[in-house]
Amino acid sequence: MTPARRFALNYIVEAADDIAYCIADLEDGVDKGILSLKELAQLLEEEWHQSCEGEYLPELCQRLLHHAPSESDFFQRFRERLWEDLCQQSAVLYLKHHPAVFAGDYNQPLLSAPCGPAQVLGVCKRVAQQHLFCHREVETLELRGYTAMKGLLEIYRPLLELSAEEFSQLLNQPGCGSPFLVERLFHRLPARYLACYRRAIASSCCGFLCTREQEWYYRVRLVIDFISGMTDPFVLDEYQQLAAI
Fold it and tell me: What is the pTM of this model?
């Protein structure tokens, strides 16, 4: 594989992520009472007619509104139909562009084709942005998450203020005179992230000016990957515990 190219599995994971979560925000909005099911269906149809051709989404919404006995049943059937169509479309595009995808030269998502199922993804995202994400309750959740993430990064900042030699001592000789605070923060880092850090700094990479730059980059990655890998509830809980809130 040529350097600086996307790995083939990235395309598949990207498509799988879009397929799995494409309507999750819309379903949450209805569950929280921000929109009714009929209001959501109307917004989806209006957005579809403004930017798309055909009747794929309007027909799907109307059929489910008439035949789904409940909100949960509506979203279950909506999800099943859309997942089936999107998976089939992704497979067709992958096979069609397999050489370019495998080489990392395919510069579009697998779900970029201008056809019904793929266009639903964009419609769902635009409706969520215009009618759900701007709601006060949703914005409050976003602000809480931003505060917690920013707070955790600040809390773990002492690990990044160490020199390469000091962090190496902390990594290889724990309990040998490292500051109390950084030792306690270091102990919270999962072993699998530390193992990745060890492998990364031990590898030879021509993309860095020196070994110190390489070590600093991967230490930053260590902290960022650790925090970004947390679930939303865990981020808030970890921040509240460490900030003594």
Answer: 0.68
